[in-house]
């Protein structure tokens, strides 16, 4: 059966982990027992469970927020309590993400039945906080902290322990290339390979077959180092006669097309800009063919060839998912309602890319330049490389932190990255991808990988003194070079919304601006 709980419940290959977990929870004698059971789990989950004996409703999400769970607390206009994985964009229901710091409990026996008391339900919810995960210690991943009756809400956070605070000496030698691993990094490189290999193994085993002869697994594939690393490890743990779908999305972006045809319009006076824009709109609408060779398509095709060399014998279905601007506009309403309560410009550009990519409807080719054939990916499980940049120092802000405050500032920034993981985009992404009846898994965010990387000194993971494509995510780059993926090991980072051209289709609005 399919495995979604990767640790914490003993499950044989022919058992269903959800059923096994449900049996354990149903057998719990108290709320403490329920929290203890859930505190030992590793895997993406969201749950609500009514414990009849204590007349209590328990609900919560996994500590990293990998599954969506929304809550609407009673209001005067909507005097009801609602838990849901999606909101459908209904504005008068004030949905918010359920906090990952705690497991929550409503004891109905303690709640008065009058409407006034019900409207204050949020203030009456009890929370059982998780302690920070013990670094590199395996299970349990969370422990029960009994709350005092006078102060039921604790502030302790469900995040991995503190990032290693050690900083290097000022004379730390710099590496000059990825071909030679310095002695102090040899063990970390090997351990990273081992940790990622095991994380992927646990997340790809026992995936059910949806359509005979078709791929069970798909990877959100940009040709970047993160998604290519997942391809490499997945290849090690799936039978060689099974195909793997590589989902590569590209958008027709009117702004990019205009720039291609007319150059930079910013040099023109305003009245000429308006006239030129009108002319170009007419010109673009008459084009019979739009190029979808966006940056992620180019790097994806390059990495496809490298994968075929390093991982021979595997059928890699490179699925070209081309999205015309008109189709983007048609999907706009459903994507925005599905991603709600996420509501910014950046939320939409990222959700748009994930929605079309996870739908899996595109074309494949038998060889580069051959005629495209329609293809629909039926894979139920999608691997996502999210988490690598946060844990290994892959963002430009990590380099900026070093330039302004040295190694201690980088350590502080990496701690912020880990602290923010549960409150970032994982719930939104789950809502988008699950709307197609599929699920995403994040091997870089397995708690074992997170704890391992948090434990490493900062200079074992990155070196902001080095060039981009070498010093950022240095440890992962060395690991990929060691396993033979030379091209991708030095590839520079590119955000999904820019690599696929899903961002800034109609202007230069900042990503943090709320949608209209």
Instruction: Tell me the number of helical segments per DSSP (H or I, 4 or more residues long).
Output: 19
Number of strands: 14
Question: What topology, given as strand order, has the largest sheet?
Answer: 10-9-8-13-14
**Domains, number:** 3
CATH fold group of the largest domain: Rossmann fold
Mean pLDDT: 84
Terminal-residue CA separation: 44 Å
pLDDT < 50 stretches = 133-159, 279-289
Question: What summary fits the major beta sheet?
Answer: 5 strands, parallel
Fourth-tier CATH superfamily name of the largest domain? HUPs
Structural class: alpha/beta
Q: Would you identify the CATH architecture of the largest domain?
A: 3-Layer(aba) Sandwich
The percentage of residues in β strands lies in 5-15%
Q: Using only CA atoms, what is the Rg?
A: 24 Å
Rough shape?
Answer: globular
Region (Disordered): 496-516
Protein name: Asparagine synthetase domain-containing protein
Domain Asparagine synthetase: 405-506
Biased composition (Basic and acidic residues): 503-516
């Amino acid at each position: 059966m399919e495995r979604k709980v990767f640790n914490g419940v003993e499950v044989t290959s022919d058992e269903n982990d959800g059923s096994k977990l449900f049996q354990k929870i149903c057998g719990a004698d108290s709320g403490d027992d329920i929290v203890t059971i859930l505190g030992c789990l590793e895997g993406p989950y969201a749950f609500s469970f009514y414990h009849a004996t204590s007349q209590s409703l328990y609900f919560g999400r996994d500590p990293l927020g990998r599954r969506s769970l929304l809550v609407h607390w009673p209001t005067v206009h909507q005097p009801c309590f609602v838990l849901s994985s999606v909101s459908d964009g209904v504005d008068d229901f004030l949905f918010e993400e359920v906090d990952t710091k705690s497991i929550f409990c409503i004891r109905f026996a303690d709640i008065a039945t009058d409407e006034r008391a019900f409207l204050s339900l949020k203030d009456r919810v009890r929370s059982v906080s998780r302690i920070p995960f013990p670094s590199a210690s395996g299970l349990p991943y969370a422990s029960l902290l009994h709350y005092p009756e006078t102060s039921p809400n604790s502030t302790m956070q469900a995040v991995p322990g503190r990032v290693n605070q050690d900083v290097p000496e000022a004379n730390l030698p710099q590496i000059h290339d990825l071909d030679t691993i310095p002695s102090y990094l040899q063990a970390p490189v090997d351990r990273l390979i081992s940790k990622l290999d095991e994380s992927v193994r646990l997340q790809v085993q026992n995936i059910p077959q949806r359509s005979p002869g078709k791929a069970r697994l798909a990877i959100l594939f940009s040709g970047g180092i993160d998604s290519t690393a997942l391809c490499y490890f997945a290849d090690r743990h799936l039978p060689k006669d099974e195909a793997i779908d590589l989902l590569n999305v590209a958008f027709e972006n009117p702004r990019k097309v205009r720039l291609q045809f007319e150059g930079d319009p910013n040099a023109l006076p305003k009245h000429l800009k308006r006239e030129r824009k009108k002319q170009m709109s007419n010109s673009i609408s008459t084009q019979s063919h739009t190029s979808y060779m966006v940056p992620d398509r180019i790097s994806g095709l390059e990495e496809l060839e490298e994968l075929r060399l390093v991982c021979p014998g595997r059928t890699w279905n490179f699925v070209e998912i081309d999205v015309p601007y008109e189709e983007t506009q048609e999907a706009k309403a459903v994507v925005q309602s599905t991603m709600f309560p996420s509501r910014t410009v950046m939320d939409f550009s990222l959700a748009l890319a994930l929605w079309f990519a996870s739908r899996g409807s595109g074309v494949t080719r038998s060889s580069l330049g051959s005629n495209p054939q329609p293809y629909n990916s039926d894979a139920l499980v999608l691997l996502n490389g999210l988490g690598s940049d946060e844990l290994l120092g892959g963002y430009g802000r990590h380099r900026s932190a070093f330039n302004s405050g040295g190694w201690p500032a980088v350590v502080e920034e990496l701690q912020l990255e880990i602290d923010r993981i549960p409150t970032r985009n994982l719930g939104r992404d789950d809502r988008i991808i699950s709307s197609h009846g599929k699920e995403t898994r994040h091997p870089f965010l397995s708690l074992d990988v997170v704890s391992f990387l948090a434990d490493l000194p900062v200079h074992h993971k990155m070196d902001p003194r080095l060039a981009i494509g070498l010093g950022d995510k240095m440890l992962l780059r060395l690991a990929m070079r060691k396993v033979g993926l030379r091209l991708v090991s030095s590839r520079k980072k590119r955000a999904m919304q820019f690599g696929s051209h899903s961002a800034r289709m109609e202007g230069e609005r900042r990503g943090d601006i709320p949608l209209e």
